[in-house]
Amino acid sequence: MATAAVTSSKQTVLQCAGTGPSMSARIHPVVLFNICDSYVRRPDQAGRVIGTLLGSASPDGTVEIKNSYVVPHNESADQVALDIDYHHNMFVSHQKVNPKEAIVGWFSTGFGVSGGSSLIHEFYSREVQNPIHLTVDTGFTNGEASIKAYVSVTLTLGDRQLAAHFQEIPIDLRLLEAERVGFDMLKNTSVDKIPNDLEGMESTMERLSTLINDVYKYVDDVVEGRVEGDNNIGRFIADALASLPKLSPAAFDKVFNDRIQDNLALVYLSSLTRTQLSIAEKLNTAAQIL
Amino acid sequence: MANQTTGRSFLQAMTSVEEVAPPVRVVQMEGLAVLKIIKHCKEFSPALVTGQLLGLDVGSVLEVTNCFPFPTREEDEELEADGANYQLEMMRCLREVNVDNNTVGWYQSTLLGSFQTAELIETFMNYQENIRRCVCIIYDPSRSNQGVLALKALRLSDSFMELYRSNNFNGEKLREKKLSWADVFEEIPIKVSNSALISAFMTELEPDSPVSQCDFDRLKLSSAPFMERNLEFLIECMDDLTAEQNKFQYYYRNLSRQQAQQQGWLQKRRQENMVRKAAGEEPLPEEDPANPIFKPIPEPSRLDSYLITNQISNYCNQINGASGQGFSKLYLMKALHEN
């Protein structure tokens, strides 16, 4: 990364300090939710909210952002006042709950890096080496949700520090944790009910059946020559089919029936237990003391 | 003076309003609170953790808009005071950034739904003293691996609380109130809501993907470990329940023995009195409080057996739910194989 440009005949060199190993960030959904919530709850007339990011950095350069909290601040034309006491108090409190989460950087709402950012970044550089700056565009400036992460690279001229340059780093937005909860719950503004075991199963099966239908349609199209076959997709389909264990029908029937029997036994047992409970209750509360 | 009267009538109006406050029908949780709870519970699983819920109480809807975790509790006086400080500090800090600063209950994680304990009830009563309408959110991280969002909102039923306060769990009282074990806890339906902003972000970031991790988890064929744990817990509970039943049998046996003794004593006393009457003497009283056989035997509390019964029914529900899923998965498998 270290780029050098000779600016004069003397040995003064303009250079960007290298960032070392390539960095990337992974963001947990709770962070995004927290940032959006705090933006909704920002004080009157505040243009943006900023706050601290907590998480952990692994040696290979990936930074996991697991938690966050807002820090109140005041911004005027050329200066930024951050409530440092608040920041420290909150950090101490978070440490009590989960000592493994350290400061990894800071976030701000808004599109891209703005004027006061370098000042705040400098402050966070004192808290942690090479902090990450996360921006979440709550205004949808370009009509899309842009979430970006930056690290700062200092630009030096000889020994003199000239400026800080924010360099964008890749960010992983797959939100696996949210997948487990179910996007339907998190995407809509209101969900009336949490699905129970069987309802969840039903929707999953529906999705599976549409997937199978899609595959059928694709294969048919390819066979009939309507669509040109893609080898990669073909291999995926072959893999999926091969992952089904090859069992003789008799063997499969046996396995299947055994499992059904097991399940039936369990249901029987639990119904028996319930019956017992209701009998016991009747007897216990109806027992008259003479 | 006029001011004072209006003030008082306002106060009176307030109290009367509070008295007729409708019971909580729905708990409305923000996605943020849901995710925070899940994160906290999951990171510390299998250790059990708790935290506080913040939100608003609006009519029959209790809104949970935020929450914060408690540090893992340790049995130490000093640390306990520390915990209280932490709580105050956290509330103060959150208020500063405009988070709803109103405790509406607490959340806790559980293992396979084994949450119906005497401690839970105690905590609930403590909360109830300060907040009239509070709720307890239970999250089970062990079940999320099966693609289930095991989130429950609970409260104690009013009749149970009344009984708990009077600390009187004998058979007679329970019959009078018609309180069965199923009436100890009330489950409140949970609604999930998100701000429009977050909804926009999520829709943008996650276009409708055909499958998600949740689906994979649900379609996993192996449910044996879950079932085994469940059955183990069920058996343990059954043993506990038998122990409780034995306690009652012992009590009833003692009671009938005592009653027989009392009858015997009374008969003897009556005969004696008849003799005295014939002799023209004053009859002796037909009761003798000093006699040990008149000392009432305390009836054991039924609270424990109620809680255990609740546990058992919970395990039964879980087993039924899981085997229901198992059936559908198996038939799905069969259909796939036949194709």
UniProtKB/TrEMBL annotation, chain A:
Keywords: Cytoplasm, Initiation factor, Protein biosynthesis
MF terms in GO: metallopeptidase activity; translation initiation factor activity; translation initiation factor binding
Main location: cytoplasm
PROSITE patterns found in the cross-reference section: MPN
Subcellular location: Cytoplasm
Location of the MPN domain: 25-156
Keyword Protein biosynthesis carried by entry: yes
Any single Pfam family the record assigns to this protein: JAB
BP GO terms, sorted: formation of cytoplasmic translation initiation complex
Superkingdom: Eukaryota
InterPro entries linked to this entry: eIF3f (IPR027531), EIF3F/CSN6-like_C (IPR024969), JAMM/MPN+_dom (IPR000555), MPN (IPR037518)
Classification via HAMAP family: eIF3f
Subunit structure: Component of the eukaryotic translation initiation factor 3 (eIF-3) complex.
Function: Component of the eukaryotic translation initiation factor 3 (eIF-3) complex, which is involved in protein synthesis of a specialized repertoire of mRNAs and, together with other initiation factors, stimulates binding of mRNA and methionyl-tRNAi to the 40S ribosome. The eIF-3 complex specifically targets and initiates translation of a subset of mRNAs involved in cell proliferation.
Family in the record: Belongs to the eIF-3 subunit F family.
Name recorded for this polypeptide: Eukaryotic translation initiation factor 3 subunit F
Organism: Carex littledalei
Species classification: Eukaryota, Viridiplantae, Streptophyta, Embryophyta, Tracheophyta
From TrEMBL, chain B:
Domain (MPN) ranges: 27-160
Keyword Protein biosynthesis: yes
Pfam families for this protein: eIF3h_C (PF19445), JAB (PF01398)
GO molecular function: metallopeptidase activity; translation initiation factor activity
Example GO BP: formation of cytoplasmic translation initiation complex
Localization: Cytoplasm
Primary location class: cytoplasm
Keywords: Cytoplasm, Initiation factor, Protein biosynthesis
GO cellular component, one term: eukaryotic 43S preinitiation complex
InterPro entries reported for this sequence: eIF3h (IPR027524), eIF3h_C (IPR045810), JAMM/MPN+_dom (IPR000555), JAMM_MPN+_peptidase_M67A (IPR050242), MPN (IPR037518)
Superkingdom of the organism of origin: Eukaryota
Sequence similarity: Belongs to the eIF-3 subunit H family.
Record-linked HAMAP family: eIF3h (MF_03007)
Subunit structure: Component of the eukaryotic translation initiation factor 3 (eIF-3) complex.
Function: Component of the eukaryotic translation initiation factor 3 (eIF-3) complex, which is involved in protein synthesis of a specialized repertoire of mRNAs and, together with other initiation factors, stimulates binding of mRNA and methionyl-tRNAi to the 40S ribosome. The eIF-3 complex specifically targets and initiates translation of a subset of mRNAs involved in cell proliferation.
Name this protein carries in UniProt: Eukaryotic translation initiation factor 3 subunit H
